[in-house]
Amino acid sequence: MAARSKKSASPGMNVFEVAQAQLDRAAKAIDLDPDVHQILTQPKSELIVNFPVRMDDGSYKLFKGYRIQHNNIMGPYKGGIRYHHEVHLDEVKALAAWMTWKSALLEIPFGGAKGGIKFDPREYSKLELERITRRFTHSLGSNIGPDYDIPAPDMGTNAQTMVWMMDTYMNSGAHTLKNAVRGVVTGKSLTSGGSRGREKATGQGLVYVLQEWARERGFTLDGATVAIQGFGNVGSHAARILARLGASVVAVQDHTGAVFNPEGLHPKRLAEHVRLKGGVAGYDHATVIDREAFFATDADIFIPAALEMQITGETAPLMKCKVVVEGANGPTDLEGEEILQSRGIDVLPDVLANAGGVTVSYFEWLQNRRAETWTLEDVDRRLHTMMTAAYATMRRMAVERAVDNRTAAYCHSLNRIQTVYRERGIFP
Ligand code: GLU
User: Fold this and answer.
1) Which pLDDT belongs to residue 10?
2) Probe ligand 1: pick from 99, 155, 200, 383, max atoms within 8 Å of CB?
3) 43-178 maps to which CATH number?
């Protein structure tokens, strides 16, 4: 508790401690009931499974998988599955809590969860990935379900991963129920029960909130410059949509390096390069820059869309942008946030800025339940309505309580969750 209440103690704090400190700050701002606060400091359940998988060469390898269910008072647990070699318990716990706040902020009837497997998916064949995914899904058993806990893609996973999960889950239950359980995962391919607009949803939602910010600030996106960290699903879609609005993506960094072109990088061409080469390194329409130069890029908009804890006491002083739009979950630590604030750089926090993904996941789940197929226009229109409403709520709360945007967003989520705890009480 002592470490958590130290405001600028982010060096040495792990990601879960940062998430806890963010919760504590918002709890204080709204005088959250200490009982509710206590419940929300820990996930409801933490599942860790170790499971063997046969590799292509006939050997067996043991994998460690996680599913952390943070809270389900607002609805079924909901959140992605991450495949990454640095996945660890505290990371998944933080990510699960962030999902609870995100769903509650967007007023989606879901709770929060997150899962993952600690391994580097790039080092495995497609057949191995399929066996790993199916065996993990089998190990999760009835800990997931369309009315209980609904996984989705995250870093290192995609629509194919979700279809394997769905198929494994379907084939583990009674045959007559197969089609009724399509909604056990979201982010599926269109052909296997996914939603139009789900793949670009996080990038699209991010742009919708950035447009609201621009409107409020009297800023024009046409002609604006952008730096993006991470060029996976979130970063590459945000780049493409922003380019269509006339913005210019001048710098991109990922695990392979950073590239810069003051004339603007071509998002579609760069995405194709990343797909073929596994990263931005080697893209020949740009100059190579180092990490420091990347953070110091002279761009109006900075979009972290990779891992947690990237904007820190070290990198925040370098940044020259007007606004940070958090495509990633938890990209800013406490010290980084304080520095951005003191330098007058606005932050559109993760629980709002990247909520387009879970919002369209909710649409997918609804379509599965009702056996409906919505048009892309319909999905985008509904997404736009929900993202702009959440932006307005966050800004109203920020002004009313004189707090930063992240705390304001948390305040709205916590108020809603607290109301439900008051109404329902604690069993028994
Ligand atoms: N993994 C995404 C996130 O962090 C999407 C979650 C979902 O669609 O359930 O928000």
Assistant:
1) 65
2) 99
3) 3.40.50.10860
